[in-house]
Amino acid sequence: MGVKEGFGKLFVKKEGIEGNEEDYLDLGIEEYEEELKDEGVNMYIKTAELTGLYDIPELKKEIYAGNILILDISLAKQDKVLVEKAIKDLKMAAFDVGGDIAGISDEQVIATPMGIKIERKKLSGK
Q: Distance between CA 67 and CA 126 in Å, rounded?
């Protein structure tokens, strides 16, 4: 077999590729990924939406569990009392664990657990 034939077996034109599911082998990596999922993980960055007062206990639980919480308050923004109560409760939870809380934008808040402080000064490329 010459070089040309060897390369012909390695490289196939895209339009010439045909196959069906029987030609492929399922590696079953989902099981492997599940095993490694929580190995060595100390904290998660979790996103959530504030829609009502019933969300606050679950949000506080995430902060107490040591996770970083990025909270979307856009859905609850019309109810200023709800937003103020939620921010006050989350602020108390963050301070209880030695963490921090700050607004990212008008519609997002971030709360962190112990050992993570939020820099309020924006970085610039200058």
A: 32
- pLDDT higher at 71 or 4: 71
Domains of the chain, start order: 43-112 (3.30.110.150)
With bands split at pLDDT 50, 70 and 90, how would you rate the model's confidence at 18? low
Token pair for 103: 């607004």
pTM of the model: 0.65
CA dist 29 and 49 (Å) reads 32
Percent of the chain with pLDDT strictly greater than 90: 52
Q: Are 86 and 94 in contact (CB under 8 A)?
A: no
Distance of alpha carbon 29 from the chain centroid: 22
Token pair for 70: 């990025």
Whole-angstrom CA distances from 17 to 3, 11, 13, 23, 28 are 21, 10, 7, 12, 24
Cα distance from N-terminal residue to C-terminal residue, the chain: 60
CA distance 111 to 95: 10
pLDDT band per the 50, 70, 90 thresholds, residue 123: confident
